[in-house]
């Protein structure tokens, strides 16, 4: 498949109506020259959360594809990735370096809630856009008026918790529910949304346990939740912690109904190592297609995805986190195309609130949509269940 064919397939409506834009001037915007737009991002390229680095690598690969096609309005995109080890203090340090030394135009696709929030005040004071943070922390929306230069990207974690709770109450009204969550803003927001809906339905949690991303094992938490008598488990954590929790629950003979984090729902990376027969029936709220899921084997978007990855990010085609990174990259490209001649930071931020687009690797019926009233890109998710071979979308 030729480059032009698969960029068109992957981009879809994202490219419509922008091909005739003249070259932007960008005068006075750091990181913008006649030939280049420099963008920065922080992510863990080392340490226990280094797996999340796949997001930045895929975003960079998407920019490589766009650059091969001529860039955006005649300018090539340069992504500067800075390793923060998933440490908030180091993330702030790296963001300062990207802005003050590297002179990036804006920050995009940072990994993590706590790390993104560590840099939020600095970036807002400097009036540097902080866009599409890979976080669904409620504060990105709730405090948008206070921090107008910042925007998350993932569906809100509180919304995810509410969606899971509504599904549990509808399908298991007599359930005893326990939650195992990552001890950060993300995990706590999912917990908050879950408890809010469960409390309204008169259904408190029977046990809640947390874990740190750096924990070597989560076995003790799983044993504790089994002892609570729970028959529904919401296991919201990193891919490593999710894999361990699924394996431990099976090994000790505990068979609750299990809901897991969408970022940890990869068939080849998480479910297969546990054993597909052992995770049949597991559920998740999702918004992206899993590239390792045979459900999508005949999907045109997935076929184009493999063509893109084979050329620009070989070896990572089945990684769910790579899909996340490429989708953020596509969103950034659309944003810059909408900026037209005006690449000022003010217009970059303004256009981030005017997005309305479908992405080929999002689940059918979902789309990116922002506005002044809701400055958060992804408003919905779908419940899906693993049938032992692939994920089947059920309902929202």
Automatic annotation (TrEMBL):
Residues 36-387 form the Leucine-binding protein domain. Pfam families: Peripla_BP_6 (PF13458). InterPro entries: Leu-bd (IPR028081), Peripla_BP_I (IPR028082). Keywords: Signal. Belongs to the leucine-binding protein family. This is Leucine-binding protein domain-containing protein. It comes from Hydrogenophaga crassostreae.
């Amino acid at each position: 498949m030729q480059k032009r064919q698969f960029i068109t397939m992957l981009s879809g409506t994202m490219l419509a109506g922008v091909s005739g834009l003249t070259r932007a001037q960008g005068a006075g915007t750091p990181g913008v020259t006649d030939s280049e737009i420099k963008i920065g991002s922080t992510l863990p390229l080392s340490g226990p959360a280094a797996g999340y680095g796949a997001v930045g690598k895929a975003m960079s690969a998407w920019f490589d594809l766009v650059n091969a096609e001529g860039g955006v309005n005649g300018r090539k995109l340069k992504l500067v990735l800075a390793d923060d080890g998933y440490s908030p203090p180091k993330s702030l340090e790296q963001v300062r370096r990207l802005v003050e030394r590297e002179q990036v135009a804006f920050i995009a696709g940072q990994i993590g809630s706590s790390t993104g929030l560590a840099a939020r005040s600095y970036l807002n004071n400097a009036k540097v856009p902080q866009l599409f943070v890979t976080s669904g922390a409620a504060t990105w929306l709730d405090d948008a008026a206070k921090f107008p230069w910042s925007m998350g990207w993932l569906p809100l974690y509180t919304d995810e918790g509410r969606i899971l709770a509504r599904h549990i109450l509808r399908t298991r009204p007599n359930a005893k529910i326990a939650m195992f969550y990552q001890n950060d803003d993300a995990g706590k927001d999912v917990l908050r949304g879950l408890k809010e809906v469960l409390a309204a339905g008169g259904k408190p949690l029977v046990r809640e346990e947390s874990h740190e991303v750096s924990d070597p094992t989560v076995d003790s938490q799983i044993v504790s939740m089994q002892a609570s008598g729970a028959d529904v488990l919401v296991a919201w954590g990193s891919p490593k912690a999710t894999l361990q929790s699924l394996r431990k629950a099976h090994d000790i003979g505990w068979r609750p109904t299990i809901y897991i984090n969408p970022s940890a729902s990869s068939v080849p990376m998480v479910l297969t190592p546990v054993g597909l027969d052992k995770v049949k029936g597991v559920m998740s709220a999702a918004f992206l297609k899993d590239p390792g899921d045979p459900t999508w084997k005949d999907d045109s978007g997935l076929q184009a995805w493999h063509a893109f990855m084979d050329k620009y990010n070989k070896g990572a085609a089945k990684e769910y986190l790579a899909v996340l990174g490429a989708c953020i990259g596509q969103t950034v490209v659309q944003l810059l195309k909408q900026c037209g001649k005006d690449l000022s930071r003010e217009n970059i931020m303004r256009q981030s609130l005017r997005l309305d687009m479908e992405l080929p690797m999002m689940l059918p019926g979902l789309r990116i949509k922002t506005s002044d009233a809701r400055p958060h890109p992804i408003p919905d998710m779908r419940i899906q269940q693993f049938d032992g071979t692939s994920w089947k979308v059920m309902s929202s």
